[in-house]
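Design job #97: recover the sequence.
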């Protein structure tokens, strides 16, 4: 069943489900009409599949069925899960499966808001499915968050309907290969029509699924620019944690995370909170890894990816995986959530890359356009010094050399405190280089353990991370 079947049209998918007499369930859609179930009605044979189709569009009536929500919000993950569980409960209570023991039940639901009248907000929504992958089994669940990109309500409705068909068909046909399932969600849908920025699998159909890897698939396949998950590995909706917050971000390869990374983060954050007069409670801390830092051999090494995330998780950090090769794109992303203040900690070598014009040849405005997007009003770079191992010189913003034609612009950013030095850094860490540490780990050389945060070296040894292999002496054999 795991092999991808020939690409079917939405009508063919809906018909295939309808003709399977062992698939039976309900549809509950709020906010954009009954766009998904419409495909099943039109395909023919719907009586074999559709137990009930409803749209509790009126808010009061919807509340009467599913209960009220905090702040009376309807387009939330909590609301979607209430809908799914309510409808599944009714199926189990009302249907006797003794005469059809091979039937597999499902409940599909969505709650969305489409583009507003002035087209200042394009809309978003939650889409989900609870289903039995085998008769009589406990229910499994797939939850998706989408952001609409099209500029017409009718187009968004049509796309939502196609996505729903793909989700239902994919769940019953590709449940044992979630990567194929995710890929199939965009069958007959262009990636510029809708964005999936969160997906979550749960239940007996997905016993070995790591949702962090599923999040990575979204970024790899261009379905979204970034995904976020907490230290427990739980997928987070970016809007829920970033909207109107202060954001302090640290980008790195974290292979592995070193005392330099932590010193940069801690000292930079200390300055950021002082500059913004903000509180830790209103500040979101993000450790960001770009997919370009995950490509060791031309493609993303998923095992290596999980190793890095596991180490950061052990330290209690929230991780973002993005496809932002340039810093300005990361800044734009955070700005899209109306963040208040943005601080980015980086090393000298990274700042030199920011001032390298070759990275902006694809922009019509070149490096000036990139700087306009990066050095926005409330953004500040916190620069960590770098000790050149060859010259032994300590590089800071004061002695950093940029191209001649960018010197005055660079001076402007320094004078206006858009780039500030982290001055209270720990000089004991100035000769810690992650590449040297990684080489020592893979070659079982001593001395690297003390250059990592507490507990990280033990974790690397216990789990054999980053190529570490324990050396066993002959006497132990």
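Job complete. Output follows.
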């Amino acid at each position: 069943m795991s092999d991808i079947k020939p690409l079917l049209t939405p009508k063919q998918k809906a018909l295939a489900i309808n003709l399977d007499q062992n698939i039976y369930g309900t549809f509950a859609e709020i906010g954009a009409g009954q766009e998904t179930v419409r495909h099943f009605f039109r395909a023919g044979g719907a009586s074999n599949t559709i137990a009930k189709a409803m749209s509790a569009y009126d808010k009061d009536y919807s509340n009467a069925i599913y209960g009220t929500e905090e702040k009376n919000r309807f387009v939330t993950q909590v609301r979607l899960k209430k809908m799914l569980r309510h409808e599944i409960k009714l199926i189990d209570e009302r249907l006797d499966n003794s005469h059809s023991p091979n039937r597999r039940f499902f409940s599909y639901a969505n709650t969305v808001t489409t583009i507003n009248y002035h087209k200042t907000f394009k809309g978003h929504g939650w889409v989900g499915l609870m289903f039995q992958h085998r008769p009589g089994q406990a229910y499994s669940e797939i939850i998706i968050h989408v952001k609409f990109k099209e500029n017409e309500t009718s187009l968004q409705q049509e796309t939502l309907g196609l996505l729903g068909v793909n989700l239902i068909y994919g769940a019953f046909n590709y449940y044992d290969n979630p990567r194929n399932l995710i890929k199939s969600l965009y069958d007959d849908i262009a990636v510029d029509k809708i964005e999936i920025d969160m997906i979550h699998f749960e239940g007996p159909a997905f016993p070995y699924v790591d949702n962090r890897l599923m999040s990575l698939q979204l970024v790899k396949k261009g379905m979204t620019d970034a995904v976020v998950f907490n230290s427990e590995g739980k997928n987070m909706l970016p809007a829920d944690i970033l909207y109107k917050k202060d954001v302090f971000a640290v980008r790195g390869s974290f292979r592995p995370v070193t005392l330099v990374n932590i010193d940069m983060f801690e000292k930079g954050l200390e300055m950021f909170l002082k500059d913004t007069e903000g509180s830790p409670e209103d500040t979101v801390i993000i450790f960001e890894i770009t997919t370009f830092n995950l490509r060791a051999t031309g493609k993303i090494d998923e095992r290596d990816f999980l190793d890095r995330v596991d180490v950061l998780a052990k330290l209690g950090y929230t991780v973002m995986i993005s496809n932002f090769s340039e810093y300005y794109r990361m800044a734009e992303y955070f700005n899209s959530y109306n963040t208040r203040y943005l601080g980015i900690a980086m090393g000298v070598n990274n700042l030199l890359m920011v001032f390298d014009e070759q990275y902006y040849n694809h922009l019509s405005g070149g490096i000036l356009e990139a700087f306009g997007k990066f050095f926005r009003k409330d953004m500040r770079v916190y620069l960590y010094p770098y000790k050149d191992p060859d010259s032994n010189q300590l590089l800071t913003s004061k002695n950093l050399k940029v191209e001649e034609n960018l010197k005055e612009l660079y001076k402007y950013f320094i004078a206006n405190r858009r780039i500030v030095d982290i001055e209270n850094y720990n000089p004991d860490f100035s000769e810690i280089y992650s590449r040297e540490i990684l080489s020592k780990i893979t070659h079982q050389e001593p001395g690297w353990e003390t250059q990592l945060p507490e507990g990280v070296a033990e974790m690397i040894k216990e789990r054999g991370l980053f190529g570490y292999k324990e050396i066993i002496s002959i006497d132990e054999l």
